[in-house]
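Re: the multi-chain job from yesterday

Posting the exact lines I submitted so nobody has to dig through the queue logs.
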Amino acid sequence: MGLDYENDGALHAKLIEDVLSQYPDKAAKRRKKHLSVVTSKDEAGGEDKGLSECDVKSNIKSIPGVMTIRGCAYAGSKGVVWGPVKDMVHISHGPVGCGQYSWSQRRNYYVGTTGIDTFVTMQFTSDFQEKDIVFGGDKKLEKIIDEIEDLFPLSGGISVQSECPIGLIGDDIEAVSRKKAKEHEKTIVPVRCEGFRGVSQSLGHHIANDAIRDWVFDKDDVAFESGPYDVNVVGDYNIGGDAWASRILLEEIGLRVVGNWSGDATLAEIERAPKAKLNLIHCYRSMNYICRHMEEKYGIAWMEYNFFGPTQIEASLRNIAKHFGPEIEEKTEKVIAKYRPLVDAVIAKYRPRLEGRTVMLYVGGLRPRHVITAYEDLAMVIVGTGYEFAHNDDYQRTGHYVKNGTLLYDDVTGYELEKFIEGIRPDLVGSGIKEKYPVQKMGIPFRQMHSWDYSGPYHGYDGFAIFARDMDLAINNPVWGLYRAPWKKMKDAPLRAVAAE
Amino acid sequence: MEKVTTMPQSAEKVLDHAPLFREPEYRQMLAEKKLNFECPHPDQIVTDQRELTKTWEYREKNLAREALVINPAKACQPLGAVFAAAGFERTMSFVHGSQGCVAYYRSHLSRHFKEPSSAVSSSMTEDAAVFGGLKNMVDGLANTYKLYDPKMIAVSTTCMAEVIGDDLRSFIENAKNEGSVPCDFDVPFAHTPAFVGSHVDGYDGMVKGVLEHFWKGSERSQAAGTINIIPGFDGFCVGNNRELKRLLDLMGVTYTVIQDASDQFDTPSDGEYRMYDGGTKIEDVKGALNAEATLSLQHYNTRKTLEYCNEVGQATASFHYPLGVQATDEFLMKVSAISGQEIPETIRMDRGRLVDAMADSQSWLHGKKYAIYGDPDFVYAMARFVMETGGEPTHCLATNGTSTWEAEMKELLASSSFGQDAQVWAGKDLWAMRSLLFTEPVDLLIGNSYGKYLERDTGTPLIRLMFPIFDRHHHHRFPLMGYQGGLRVLTTILDKIFDKLDRETSETGVTDYSYDLTR
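And the result, structure tokens for all chains:
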């Protein structure tokens, strides 16, 4: 698949050894299991080169005091899964901070009249005070729901996103939700995503998925005439419009996207999901649970796909088309052919500016593997990658993407990431806002790969052009050549020349 | 029906989200999505509801809310503690409790300052919720100490640790006994429950925690004429603290800025990542016990800290974010009175230049109406400066404003004829502000980036002068305080007024008779 290259495994092994030597013994022992260098164990295995659990341990508690980059279950539920559902009011239930820091930060694009019929970029909070902790917050929650009904009558429903204290003080948000749902005849979804649950965002995704199963599905009679080509897109949060750049392709090949979860989604799109013919999962990590449930209960098949970069887009479109038969397959070939000139032009323009440039990634969800081929489409080289909150099945899926010698880091610490970057000095790092500025201080170009650095979309053919442009503008900006004052002696290791060529 | 689409994207001119989704292919796709799959409310109902939210009737319901908070202009205590810790030499913030919180504080600060923000968590999970987080503290302090080589670790708490009642004093002592850090290593702490007060209180708690840690049990020998200055939580600390120090240096005052994050949040790009930079030296914090007086630049950020300074025998005084002419006058005269140092002629020239600028522009500012929101001291300062320019602060709102603040604001507003029609909104949020702006409109809105939603909905031009500013870059690198800061604020307000006027008068052959070259 894609570009052929091998990374410097020996250097990477040495870097792992070096960082581990700096930890107290107990922590070193624990961190060791999360760091690895990719080796091809099974040459004959060919395509089926999955990483096994022995390679990298994952989904384990972070070590205290090491500066993990991870978030919490609330971030996984409110921030990722529920927050983008646009016609619902999502209450950050507890103290003010969680809702405040996550307010408008994930760029879940949507169309609607904010504050009237859509509510994504608003911060609704119960703003817990000491008395709420002492006496419980259920009464307050009831009142909040009444006030939402009064001030926002066009909201399609409400979700209650629990912050840490809720589970600790023994509030019964389920009882409140049940009571108020009946009273207002509206969907009200209590979510037990307290931040201390689990080891990362990941459990929050799972809890949020379960809440869809338990509090949305099978509740109302859904009047909907389904068709033979109905699909749900699951796990596309429409960061910078990704879901739109994907939808346009799926529609072009003749499918009907009856629901998109959960970017730009209305509650109706979630309710009717069980009527679709196929679930297409983009972010496997955050939404596989509900897809498995729909498969079990409603017999809906699911399929993973990857819309980053032309190689994966083509493979995914063909794979999806195969599910629906010759008519769709034929259209798909036409669509692929239609976009081929765009792809060729993008690669012709940007490949010469990016070829051979090395990239390190540290992201969440699916991106640490899914974007790899998009870089390789531009002849860029992935030297290291890692996940914030992956499970074993993510690393299994990663084996198909990474080359020999690639450095792998799970739940990387601030210290490790800094040392790895220093040791490898890649041409580009793709990670999050907390990582952006330290990396740039070192003189290394950076792109935020959670928020697309306020650009995007990156999905689909339209997105690939933007992706290529952004990587070019990051790497080939003249600022990287200005870091050193010319009157300073060049006795230190010189910065890599990164000026535009 | 077969869709025939052309292609909006091209390699020659790459369109990203803003223009891309305005292309006809996407507009059609989104319109059909809405119609066929979203089950939307009819347009008329949406329009009617939208209009309803602009009415006095809606305002009354909105302001009568008792439980629901929408778009508040405040954050929680530990954010203030993390910011405070960043103002001390080689200090790592260690927040005891759930780990997601720390990811949030770091992101929040980085998005505003466009700078690294370091802090660690004790990463407590379910088992710690049951058994307490002592083990997390013991392991965590050891790891932080070893990996990040700090001179000091400042411990604060998330609400999880507060709800289960972890006791920092004994936990830290335990950790020291178990050898996590050396016994004489500095680990000041502050309990910072998110369900009490706001980030300004977390700031207060952490600064007090640091002072107590170094001052308790030490003998104080007063050094006459020396001053401590505590800036308070300030998104403009980079510009402000440097301007402040310039003024004090010009006066020749012996002073210590306690909690100075100006270098930490403004490190240079030269190839080296500095995890720690600048900050108040630990030796200076110790020495600050002997100062004659401690001055706080933001009263509501330092209520407990100043109380403590009083207890140890220091004189104290507090200000409300000294910005503009008279507030800066008062601050400098206080410094002069304590230090015995004259205010030099250079500073009087600065003052004169600010007044000169205000006089030059007064015709554009006189009678302008403002809505101002933000932290209590900032709102006080802005309202005062606005009145100095002949403006009228119509709405003054602080979500974290107390009844004492409200009373103080009312007193300030009553002192000027320009404050006669002003209203003070303590504890209200930005959804309340939305109703206020619709029912009693103003010319300008002063606040932070969150105000952009109010600008969109109500058409009131927004001036960003308050933390956090996410969607404009580098403003925090310039001062707001002092006379020079006043000049900056004045220019920012004027630019907004002139830009709006130019926009309104730029229609060729229709309004451009007023598109004046000189204004």
